Amino acid sequence: MKLWFLTLWVALAAAWVDNQGTTCTLYPESLVHHGQAVDDSPSIQQAFEMCGNNGTVIFSKNVFHVNTVLNTTNLENCNVHLRGELRFSTNIPYWRTHAISVVLQDQVTAWLFGGTNVSFFGEGGFYNGQGQAWYNANKNQSNQPGRPMSITFYNSTNLLVDGLKILQPQFWATFVWGSKNVSVTNLFVNATSNNEWGTMNCDGYDSWQSDNLLVENATIITGDDCIAAKGNTTNLHAKNIYCEGGTGITIGSIGQYPETPDYNMNTTFENVHIKNAMDGAYIKTWQGTRIYTPSNGDWGGGGTGLVKNITFRNFTMENVGLPIQLSQCVYSANSDKGCNTSKLQVEDVKWEDIRGTSRFNIAASLYCSDERPCPNITFDNVNITSVNATLGLPYYGTDIQHELYQCTNVLGKKNSGIPCNQAAPSNFSQWIYGNVDSSGLATLT
Questions:
Q1: Number of domains the chain contains
Q2: Is residue 322 one of the residues assigned to a domain?
Q3: Whether the Cβ atoms of residue 305 and residue 262 lie closer than 8 Å to each other
Q4: Is cis: bond before 142, omega within 30 of 0?
Q5: In 3D, which of 45, 53, 60, 59 has the Cα closest to residue 22?
Q6: Rg of the chain, C-alpha, whole Å
Q7: Position 355 in a domain
Q8: CATH of residue 258
Q9: CB 197, CB 219: distance < 8 Å
Q10: Is 79 a member of any domain?
């Protein structure tokens, strides 16, 4: 195992380093193994052990092969500079049996990272998850057991992640868990498959059980949520976001676990451009009864809690399947099992300054359960037009030739600013593949 220091005096003058902090500069094992790809994980672990407290860790401008899990937590007053490529192996059997648990939905991560007063700078370097191998193995399924998230920021306070670039993430690209005061700025994520197998569940940014979060200046190209605020995410501000493909920007999914209520409050998403996506700006909760969903790979439903003070502001939608949605039965919509049973309250949600084009004849579907009708749900300056309408074409396969705004159990509709013109079915899916008719069903086109 080789760990080279930036200067010889750092290695020799240990007493001086202890007083002033340490700098560990990493070089890959391949440099001393005739270019062979040797696992650099042990050297990376050693660098963080030596310089992760009151120090600096620098990845030099080289390719680092990461073949085993990384756990670099409990850092303190540490700066990390990523100037090279972190290339994660495609040894699927290894990762599925050795990746680190993150508890939520029995999921795992390839790199657990975190601490107090830590900065992570992507200075020309990037994380290469080599996700195509995972997309091929996953075959468009949702939660393949043991498929690891790329990097999880865990148990962190005062963490800055700036300029992080992740290509071909294995699963969710970034996950903030059990943390507070976390800023992720200038993030770039690209999960793009080169064949028929899509990038299902390659979320760009997810948060869970975390408070006071910032996401600013992000470009996310993926096949799933660009940004998702999972359970007990509070005081999240996400702004200046470009989201292409996938399922847009969301609160959720939440309400999966009866034993742990979800309180998602005080979140603002603003200055967002969503292009060629299935969904736009939406909220998704589980139903109120426990069921097993094969597509999601686990049990869920029956959870309670509160979604309150949520704002979607200044969005541009470009060819989006379902621009605006509130669903309380998202994971069993197709089967209609237990829909209209949610006891999770949603209130004080605003969509304002939303414009652009929908792929079909529906702009919004807002459904709240009979158990928990939704107060104070409002639209302000929402202007969605279908692509067909902009081209002067009719809507095919439907008896409705205007933009639909579906609403059910939305309290105070007359003063909401929402032009409700049809009831929203309890089992209306987030996956829309055609125009909607007067029954509230989408045609298959």
A1: 1
A2: yes
A3: yes
A4: no
A5: 53
A6: 23
A7: yes
A8: 2.160.20.10
A9: no
A10: yes
CA 339 vs. chain centroid, Å, equals 25
Report if residue 421 sits inside a domain. no
Return all residues near 20 (Cβ < 8 A) that are at least 6 apart. none
**Residue 329, token pair as written in the block:** 């039965």
Long-range contacts of 35-44 (CB under 8 A, 24+ apart): 37/65, 38/65, 39/65, 39/66, 39/67, 39/68, 40/64, 40/65, 40/66, 41/66, 41/67, 41/68, 41/69, 41/70, 42/1, 42/68, 43/1, 43/2, 43/3, 44/70, 44/72
CA 35 – CA 74 distance, rounded (Å): 33
224 is catalytic: yes
Beginning with the edge strand found earlier in the chain, give each strand of the sheet holding 148-149 in spatial order: 100-101, 108-109, 148-149
pLDDT tens-digit map of 218-262: 999 999 999 999 999 999 999 999 999 999 999 999 999 999 999
Cα dihedral 238, 387, 224, 266 sign: positive
Domain of residue 309: give its range. Answer: 8-415
| Average pLDDT over every residue of 363-373 | 97
Among the listed residues 203, 206, 224, 225, the single catalytic one is: 224
| Structure token pair of residue 405 | 């705004």
